[in-house]
Inverse folding.
């Protein structure tokens, strides 16, 4: 029977059924496309070998990396954490592995442990532990929501170098949200401990970690609160009447810092935050050691060898005419380094490099100084032969072993400027070695 000979009511029923089927089919397609989902892509090719490159500029990247084991680089994107390699390659390569989530935003990324684990926090409160070598998901747990959306801009630097509320302290992952401080086992994702911070919302200032402890500036009491990273136990507070707190020589962002500088009503003070010391099978939270040399503005801490600590000072860290390595307690001079005659005064980089001190001249020359002896290790240009030189100021600065990453920003540009103005180049992340 032809369509036109059917009764009008029958044609209406058939048309309605077809429309309903189309709507249902379209809904299924939309659900498949936009439904909440996690996509894990594991590594299918061998892990790159560790690379310790020669000093100098290596390449220009779009994404700021965490460098893990001198083998791979871990990057952040709005809804993805992914890795590529080898670590010294001049551009990004195809992903070794990837974790992509929808509709959650990536909030922060840290890496720690051996074998290494990459821990990522997301806007829906989820924490993921990823095997850094394979990309396999080791665990996922629901924790505190540390941020509402991705804040990494084009480079992802803020997400991997300064993740909000996400810290490492030795072999512990910590999250801090409002009044809750939580310690996680990075290998299993299990909660080791959870404590309530005494400071009210308006009293919580600078937060950071050392190898064995979490520290928080309580701006209302003017003290530096301390908690053992392994147990969450409260430790004796540090300082009195503190008005400002500055973590010093942190491995990444505000994690695993070697020292702290404070300002209070009685002047400036500083303490060394010692690395983990083991007693049997337990990690001991070391007692901070007062360090008068570290109280100098811009002073940094280096650990050139196990058990050895040097405080490095300069009269003007922004234009170094003399660099001095000192005993961290007595201030005794161990070595002195000066620029070559006629050279422009370099700036001292506040990096987490442990065995060397890094400086950059206004002409983009990178200088590495041995933190134990004061001998110059290397001097190399940061200008890439395939890039036209351009002026820039430094944003995030990150060091891992011999590697150095500099986020290059357009001079005198407001933070709220669009990325096309904020960054001076489509590839604003400089990868270098010292």
């Amino acid at each position: 029977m032809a369509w036109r000979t059917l009764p009008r009511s029958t044609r209406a029923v058939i048309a309605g059924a077809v429309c309903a089927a189309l709507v249902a089919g379209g809904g299924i397609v939309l659900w498949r496309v936009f439904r909440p989902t996690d996509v894990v892509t594991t590594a299918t090719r061998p892990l790159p070998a560790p690379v310790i490159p020669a000093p100098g500029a290596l390449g220009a990247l779009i994404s700021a990396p965490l460098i893990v084991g001198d083998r791979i680089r871990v990057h952040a994107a709005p809804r993805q954490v992914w890795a590529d390699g080898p670590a010294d390659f001049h551009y990004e390569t195809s992903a070794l592995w990837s974790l992509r989530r929808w509709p959650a935003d990536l909030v922060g990324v840290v890496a720690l442990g051996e074998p290494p684990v990459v821990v990522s926090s997301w806007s829906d409160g989820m924490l993921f532990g990823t095997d850094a070598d394979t990309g396999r998901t080791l665990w996922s747990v629901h924790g505190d929501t540390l941020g509402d959306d991705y804040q990494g801009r084009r480079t992802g630097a803020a997400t991997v170098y300064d993740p909000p509320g996400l810290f490492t302290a030795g072999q512990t992952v910590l999250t801090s949200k409002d009044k809750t401080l939580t310690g996680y086992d990075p290998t299993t994702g299990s909660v080791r401990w959870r404590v309530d911070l005494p400071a009210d919302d308006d009293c919580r200032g600078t937060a950071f970690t050392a190898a064995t402890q979490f520290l928080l500036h309580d701006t209302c009491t003017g003290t530096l609160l301390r908690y053992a990273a392994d147990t969450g136990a409260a430790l004796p507070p540090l300082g009195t009447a503190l008005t400002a707190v500055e973590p010093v020589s942190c491995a990444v962002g505000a994690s695993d810092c070697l020292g702290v500088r404070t300002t209070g009503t009685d002047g400036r003070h500083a303490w060394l935050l010692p690395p983990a010391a083991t007693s049997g099978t337990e990690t001991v939270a070391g007692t901070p050691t007062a360090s008068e040399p570290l109280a100098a503005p811009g002073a940094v801490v280096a650990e050139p060898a196990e058990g050895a600590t040097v405080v490095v000072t300069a009269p003007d860290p922004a234009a170094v005419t003399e660099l001095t390595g000192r005993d961290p307690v007595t201030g005794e001079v161990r070595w002195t380094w000066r620029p070559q005659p006629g050279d422009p005064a370099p700036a001292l980089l506040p990096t987490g490099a442990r065995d060397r001190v890094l400086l950059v001249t206004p002409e983009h020359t990178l200088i590495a100084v041995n933190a134990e002896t004061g001998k110059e290790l290397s001097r190399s240009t940061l200008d890439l032969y395939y890039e036209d030189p351009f002026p820039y100021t430094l944003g995030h600065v990150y060091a891992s072993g011999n590697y150095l990453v500099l986020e290059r920003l357009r001079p005198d540009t407001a933070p709220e400027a669009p990325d096309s103005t904020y960054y001076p180049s489509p590839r604003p992340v400089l990868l270098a070695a010292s």
